[in-house]
Structures are given as C-alpha cells and as structure tokens.
Amino acid sequence: MFEYTLILIYILLTFSLSIIFKKYFSDNKEVLRKIIHIGIGPLIPIALYLKIDQKSALIFTGIISLMVLLNYIYKLFPIIEDIDRKSFGTLFYCLSLFILIFIFWEKDYYSLIAGFFIMTFGDGLAGLVGKNIDSKSWVFLKQKKSFIGTFTMFITSLVIICSLGLAQKHNLNINFFTLAFIATVLEQLSIFGIDNFIVPIVSAFYFNIFITNL
C-alpha cells in the first residue's frame, strides 16, 4: 500500500506544480501541458523500483486512460488539453504507455523506459525549447516545427538511448544514433498528437530488437 501512496503523491505534486504555474504564467499554455507531460516520465522507473507488479501498473494506467478519455468529452480538467490546436496527445500518451507496460514490464524494462523517456523528455523538451527560442521553422502536415526543437528532440533522445544502452553494458554503436534519428523523424508526425503514440512504441521496439537483444 505504501508504494501506491507514493505514486499518488508524486502525481498530485506534478499536477499541483502545473496549477501553480498556470496561476502565474497563464498565457503559456504549452508549458502548462509540458509540465505534466515531462513530470509523469519518472513514474515508470519509480514504479519499477518500488516493485509494483505488471497487473497493478496496467490497471492504474487503464484507469488514467479512461479518465483522460472522459476529460476529452466533459472537460473536467481543461488544463490537460488547454492548447491552441486540436490534439489527442494525452490519450495517445496513456495508450502507448499501457501497451508498453503490457509488452515490456517484465520482459525488458530498459526498452519500456527508452520508449517512454524519449516521448516524455525528448518530445517534452523539444516542445518547450522550440516554443520559447526562435529558430528556423517549417510546417509539416499543418504542424509548425522548428530547428531548435527538432535538434533538442534528437540530442535528448540520444542521451537517453546512450545512457540506457551503456547501463546494459553495450558499446556505443550506430543503432544508438539510428534510433535517435528515427524518433526525431517520427516526432514530426504530430498531427492530432499521434506522435505521442508512434514515437514511444517504435522507439521501445527498436531498442528491444537492435540494442537489448542484438
């Protein structure tokens, strides 16, 4: 019971931080969303460290996914999707996590963390940096992308992949850079927030096949 209480406290603290930020910086809606986006990332290693079983993790993630779906319908917590574009990113975010937990929780937690961290920190930091630092930009599938944001996605992804790969005692190789590149390209496909689904799923499977099990 203690471990579930810690998880709940962490989630409440993350949402509290976003609420506090909204009070003082209400104009920057993207940052509000990214605080939650990035803040949820550490939950996976925390849950693994606390030895929470796969079934409980799936139930918890399923409940969160259902709550997010209801929020899209009834707008119970508008802060989660309070942005200037149509996006189902948070729902895709939860669904991808559910799938990764189902496939990799007991089989290969390194791949699970790789896929999820690339999404939470790579995409999250790319959004923050890209929105707040001016650089060359382009529009792809009606979504504005920037050089600095894309570069941030690549570098952050590469750091995550290298850290996890080296933790598995693998030598630095071309697969590390290839995965970072693939994740960065997939992040460009952000229409309706679909990148929140394809980036973690593809990244986790690539990491499992070409790094963990190579």
Order the strands across the largest sheet as they lie in space.
1-2
What would you call the structural class?
Answer: mainly alpha
Would you report the number of β strands?
A: 2
Could you state the order of secondary-structure elements as H and E? Answer: HHHHHHEEHHH
N-to-C CA distance: 38 Å
Residue stretches low in confidence (pLDDT < 50, at least 5 long) are none
In the residues, how many domains can be counted?
A: 1
Helical percentage: over 70%
Radius of gyration over all CA atoms, rounded: 17 Å
Strand content: under 5%
Mean pLDDT: 89
Shape: globular
Number of helices: 9
Main beta-sheet strand count, sense and barrel state? 2 strands, antiparallel
Q: How would you summarize the topology of this molecule?
A:
Elements lengths: L1 H23 L4 H11 L3 H7 L4 H21 L14 H16 L4 H24 L4 E4 L2 E4 H21 L6 H14 L7 H18 L2
3D architecture notes:
By secondary structure, the protein is mainly α. It contains nine helices and two strands; from the N terminus they run ααααααββααα. The chain has one domain (2-212). The model has no long low-confidence stretch (mean pLDDT 89). Helix 5 (89-104) runs antiparallel to helix 6 (109-132).
Condensed summary:
By secondary structure, the protein is mainly alpha-helical.
Task: Sum up the structure in keywords.
214 residues; mainly alpha; two-stranded antiparallel sheet; 9 helices; 2 strands; 72% helix
